[in-house]
Amino acid sequence: MTDKTLHIVGGGMAGSEAAWQAAHMGVDVVLHEMRPKVETFAHQTDDFAEMVCSNSFRSDDDEQNAVGLLHWEMRQANGLIMSSADHNRLPAGGALAVDRDAFAQYVTEKLRALPNIRVEYGEISDLPTDGHWIFATGPLTSPALGDAIANETGTDRLAFFDAIAPIVYADSIDMDVVWAQSRYDKGDTEDERRAYLNCPMTRDQYEAFIDALLAADKTEFHEGETATYFDGCLPIEVMAERGRDTLRFGPMKPVGLTNAHKPDDKPYAVVQLRRDNALGTLYNIVGFQTKMKYGAQTDVFRMIPGLENASFARLGGIHRNTFMNSPTLLDSQMRLKSRPNLRFAGQVTGVEGYVESAAMGLLAGRLAAAELLGLDLPDVPQDTAMGALIHHITGGAEAKSFQPMNVNFGLFRPVDGLKGGRRGRKDRYKAYTDRAKAAWIDWLEQST
Predict the structure, then answer these.
(1) Which residue ranges does the record assign to the MnmG N-terminal domain (predicted)?
(2) Which of 163, 228, 256, 320 could make an S-S bridge to 184, C-beta 3.0–4.6 Å?
(3) Looking at the 3D structure of the chain, how many domains does it have?
(4) How far is the C-alpha of 356 from the C-alpha of 94, rounded, in Å?
(5) Whole-prediction pTM value?
């Protein structure tokens, strides 16, 4: 091991982005990935940056949405994850959705093409005592490594549970019942305006569906595990348990849609499917993360009008997601306070979402490379989306109640002179994004 080599553990969103950024700054990188030697239940391929949950990066609006702003900042920083997303984009209304297989293949090919990145396969189960390391092991951190982190930090691992949604073969969907339309016809092109498939439900169908959902066999947790979910990825049965109309005001809301087959009929609820690959042969059921057992899933989901004969390319599932109490453990450079040669990035640090994970990988890669090269990078401006996130996880959040967090404007410092409330929201968000863009460009210019 040479002192100037950066080791990155984990080839997911954060690890891939960290490797890309560090390598482009001129640092030699060793990317450690345990797959395929050590498999996980959620991964289907050996590619880097495989998407195991949704295929959506959410809103791409960089003026009125915090995650869209994060997209913009990553693009400005030559981000690999955003480059792959843009190259493998699918119609999704105002959202940024991708062909998940092509997306991961693109990332893998780009990383393998760089001469100063070497890939080593195998599990890293301990925290190294020397060298420069970034741990970006994501939601599926191995039990052995999780125990090593817990032993080093002197705290129990924190965990919550993520569920993944099922994927349906397009040719098994009944298009005499289902119609293509994005909510409120959102999108600049015809493909965007028809990016979702919609399955309408009458009140009786909805009530029967809720009854079946609540009665279905669910995955049981092991002794000692508690089902603490991240609110942005709740299983549908957990939402249904909160009230019979919860789904109808959530992922199954019928607003902004007109049934092309029966324009005068107002659906009581609507299930949406989003294209999952460029060929249009696969669709995922939007917001339908689930912990139902496989047999129950096929029975319940075939109650959805238009999916009576559905064939599933993948059924839903649930997995444990490990994250650290970062506000107490990491410094502002994402280094472990007790072992500053170790950095952490991605979901293990307590950010939630593909984009947020990749963004923390981007920063960790740049910060680690700068340290190796003897460069003195200025602090990431707190008024940027990147800065708001890193500030939150490394000290801005309340440690006692720390939970995984998506990027949102609630993490941003107020802009003086702007009114609060819903009426002032559009101007306020535009002010946030304008301020962030200027600060981010300034930081990038100082950092190169």
Answers:
(1) 6-374
(2) 256
(3) 2
(4) 19
(5) 0.76
